[in-house]
Amino acid sequence: MDAMSDLLDRTRARLLTGQNAEEPRRLASRAGLAAGSAAATGLALCVLAALVGWLAGSTGTAADATRVGAQVWLLGHGSGLHIGATAVSAIPLGLTMLLALLVWRASVWAASTAEVTDVRAACSGTAIVAGLYATVATAAALFSGTASSGASPVRAFVSALLLAGVSSALGMLRGAGLLDDLWRWLPDHARAALRGGAAAVLALFAAGALLATGALVAGFGEAANIAHAMGAGIVGGAILTMAGVLLLPNAALLAVAYLLGPGFSFGTDTVVAPSGVALGRVPAFPLLAALPDEGAAPVWAPALLAVPVLAGLLAAVVALRHSPVSALDRAALRGGLAGLLAGAATGGLLALAGGSVGPGRMADVGAPVLICTGIAMLAMTLTGVLSGVLVCWRARRR
């Protein structure tokens, strides 16, 4: 009987070992496919757009167009480019969002098909996806670079690793069904602050997007004239439109800086703010028709400064609606914390919106991040505290 029990134990252990060994192999293969498909899809889209532009033009070769497409793909990760002696560090955030979505979707598929059920396995899958994806980005930087233009392979690896790491982690957790569990694990006040902060950031971004879109619609005639003067044609016009769409999140965030008060610069010694506009000459690009005219700002422009205050109010309302409290001090704390998180997140997004876009004075484009962050945190935190007290007081009155 003892010999039989030992044999059964050894058989069970061998079967369990084989089962456990199979799961990591399945996860590694799915994660590898996810990384490869996400990288290949994003790279193919950028190269295809560059080839279409090359076919519509009359200069360069197909190999040149392919290299340009690969460099644009790398730029979407934040790798930056050097074109001659000019450094381009601005990130087309619309492209960044698209690339992050591709990694996220692929990671959701990998986690669900590999039957990931725990955080440890999700972390392993994330590491595989991010590592392989960053390796592809490094290879793209090496093969697309020339003596006159290219991206740093080291920076390409780091930037792609960060983008793929964050996107894949969220995708793996979503595919494994663990996001809800992690959310419930957070303390109640943290969930309330995150809800309120996210609502405020989205509202502020939506207001910036609305302002930028309205300005572009108002300057549509000028944008059309610029495109016509460039001799874009139908294909070129479509490519310029696509470029404008990919840069629209940048424009929306710069508009957020305008709503906060300090505004932004579009070139050295320039300013676009509710207090006035001093621009000088700007490059001929249709999206830039949304920039206001030189001189004093419209009389209604200072009223836009109320938008961050309203965002802080929204942060407190959302935070307390989902997690109501009866004590005024706790309501003030939750509303203030939601506003504080919203202000900090707004500053982080503004840091991504600018950068160098060309030589000379065009190396200075963006918002004064520290000043805008301080204003956003102060305005939304104070408004969140006061609004939290008001919301709680009204609830107690009812």
Question: What's the SSE blueprint?
Answer:
Layout: H1 2-56, H2 62-76, E1 81-83, E2 86-88, H3 93-113, H4 119-144, E3 149-150, H5 153-175, H6 179-185, H7 188-218, H8 220-229, H9 233-260, E4 265-266, E5 271-273, E6 276-278, H10 306-322, H11 328-353, E7 365-366, H12 369-397
Antiparallel strand pairs: 1-2, 1-3, 4-7, 5-6
Outline of the structure:
Helix content is 72%, strand content 5%. With 398 residues, the protein is mostly helical.
What is the overall pLDDT average? 87
Please write the string of helix (H) and strand (E) elements. Answer: HHEEHHEHHHHHEEEHHEH
Structural class: mainly alpha
* DSSP strand count: 7
Poorly predicted tracts of residues = 1-21
State the helical fraction: over 70%
Biggest sheet: strands side by side, in what order?
2-1-3
Please give the radius of gyration in angstroms: 25 Å
Described by strand count, sense and barrel closure, the largest sheet is: 3 strands, antiparallel
Q: Provide a count of the helices.
A: 12
Distance between the termini: 74 Å
Indicate the proportion of strand residues.
under 5%
What spatial form do the alpha-carbon principal axes imply?
flat
